[in-house]
Amino acid sequence: MKLDDDIALALRLADAAGAAIRPHFRTVMVPERKDDATPVTLADRAAEEVMRAILKAERPDDPVIGEEFGATNGSSGRSWVLDPIDGTAGFLAGRPLFGTLIALVVEGWPVLGVIDQPILGERWLGVSGRPTTLNGQPVRTRACRTLADATLATTGPHYFDDHDGGHFMGLAAKTDHKRMVMGGDCYNYAMLATGQLDLVCEAGLKLHDWAALVPVVEGAGGVMADWNGDPLHAASSGHVIALGDPARMDDVVAALACGH
Fold it and tell me: Domain residues for 221?
């Protein structure tokens, strides 16, 4: 399968998901609660269903892993990983900082990723070996001279348990914590890839939360890893860091290790 064909398909998936999501934005919606107590809406399900329908028709041998409807079987060794609305709480609050995440994972490693913000009309595309683009224009992360200069972002402190929260605060104390950003979900990673943030740190993420982010961040000159600094793959624990300047990786890992 040609990578360009996969890219074209991923962009059509994003188009279809956006068309399913936009009519529901800033409407009165009553979310349901999943088993983990996180909210899910009609928009989440509609967007994933339309993407799955396209993949079933065009890539029947590729497994699909989605947040809302789980995993399907396939024999190709290539998986499509979908998060129709990453940031459902923000979506419900009428904040256009959520995103549709689409990834192609080959033998456990993300090789293609899309972050699509269908309300603002912003789409980041990351492909292994190619520069990341925002609406077709290349973007780059920014340099960060020291960890003390870094602007750190995370979705929220309530996503860390006590143990992980202590390590996160150890990192936060080493950064420019007066500019720390809370909230934003996948949009934080898009902003890091565009040179607006330096560092994102989170725990408890699942494959559908982060797979699309890796090609976007790394194609823009950044790096993503687990809290030990090791590359992310399908078996990773869900402890995730994203750095705009890879030179700060050792500093970040050391700061996380010193937290308690």
Answer: 147-258
